[in-house]
C-alpha cells in the first residue's frame, strides 16, 4: 500500500518539475501573465461597480444595494482565490483546498453564531433596559 | 498489510528514502504557510464578527455615513489592487529568472503598499482629530481594531518585501528565495482578499446603514 502511494507521489512530482523546468519542489501553482491580467481586470470591475452603486445611490432601496454589494464581494473573493492565490483542487494533493474548506466552515459557524446570538440578545435585552430607564 | 511488506534488499525502500529527502527541502513550506494564512483568516473572522456585533453601537457618537469618505477608500482599494498585480508581475519575472525585474516589481509593489498605509494613517488621524477615535464608541473601537490589524499585516508585509529584495540582490533567485517569494505572494494576495471584506462590510455597508 505504502509503496504504491509513494510511487504515485513521485510520478506527479516529476511531471510537475518537467512541466516548469524547475529543479526544486515548487508545489505552489504558478500563474501565467494572462491569469494575473484577467484577475486584475475582473477585480477592477468587481470593485468599481459596488463603489459606484453606493456612492451614486442609483438604487433607492439600500437593502437591494447592500445585497448586490455583498454578492460582488463574494465573487471578487473567489476571483482572487483562483487568479491570484492560484487555488485549485490539485495543489498539495488537495490539502490546501481541504484546509480552506475547513476554515470556511469554522468561519461561517463563528460569524453566523456570533451575529445571531448577539442580535437576539440585543433585541431581547434593549426594550427592558429602556423601559427601566424611563 | 502483509502484501505491502517489501522484502529487504529490493529497490523500493531505497527509492522511498531518496524521495523523502528530496521533499524535505521546503516541499511542505507552502502548505504550512497556507495553514498559517487560514489561522490568520480566523483572526480576521473574529474581528469581523466583533465589528458585526458592535457596528451599530454608536453610543451617541458619529455614525459611519458621517465619518467614512468613500473616495478615499476607493483610492486605497485601488492602491492595494495595483500592488497585487505588480506582485504578480514580480512572480512572473521570478519564473523567468530575471533578478533585476523581480527587484523592480517588488519595489513598485512596496511603494503601492506604502501609499496604502499612508492613506490609511491619514484617515485614522483625521478620524481621531474629529473626535472619532477608538475610545469614542464600541463601533469605532471595533472599526479601528479590524482595519488597524489589516494595516499592521500590510506593514509587516512591506518589511518582509524589503528583506526579500535585499536577499534576492545578495543571493539571486535561489530555490530558497523563490520559496520565500511564493510565501509572500500568498500573504500579499491574502491581505487583498481580507481588504475586499473590509471595504465591503465596513465601508460600503456602513455608509448604507
From TrEMBL, chain B:
SUPFAM superfamilies: Cytochrome c oxidase subunit III-like (SSF81452). The keyword Oxidoreductase applies. CDD domains: Ubiquinol_oxidase_III (cd02863). Signal peptide: none annotated. The chain crosses the membrane at residues 33-54, 74-93, 105-122, 142-166, 186-206. GO terms for molecular function: cytochrome bo3 ubiquinol oxidase activity; cytochrome-c oxidase activity. Coiled coil: none annotated. Its main location: membrane. It is found in: Cell membrane. The keyword Transmembrane helix applies. It comes from the Bacteria. Pfam families: COX3 (PF00510). PROSITE patterns: COX3. It is a multi-pass membrane protein. GO terms for biological process: aerobic electron transport chain. Belongs to the cytochrome c oxidase subunit 3 family. Cytochrome bo(3) ubiquinol terminal oxidase is the component of the aerobic respiratory chain of E.coli that predominates when cells are grown at high aeration. Has proton pump activity across the membrane in addition to electron transfer, pumping 2 protons/electron. This is Cytochrome bo(3) ubiquinol oxidase subunit 3. It comes from Sphingomonas taxi.
